[in-house]
Amino acid sequence: MPTRHTYGADPAQLAELTLPDGEPRGVAVVVHGGFWKPEYGIEYARPLVPSLAAEGWAVWAVEYRRGAGAAATLTDVADAIRACPDLPGPR
Predict the structure, then answer these.
(1) Is the pTM of this model over 0.70?
(2) Whole-angstrom Cα distance, residue 31 to residue 37?
(3) Which of the ends of the chain has fewer CB neighbours closer than 10 A, N or C?
(4) Cβ pair 80, 7 in contact under 8 A
């Protein structure tokens, strides 16, 4: 089951962390596509999560401010990666 984390003040600045059984082999960061349009969100990243977790990866699925332009999106993704919790295992 994923846990939700925020990395900024905007409601869209969130990420979902899914842990595998046992110690993670590392962290896979999943960023959904969608051309920065508001109608495409984190739900497009979620189908990738179970297979990555089943292979031993901790999965950090990132949502970002959509409709705010590419610069804001790239800043959000960088901020989300920096906000990923420290986990055991290799990084």
Answers:
(1) yes
(2) 14
(3) N
(4) yes
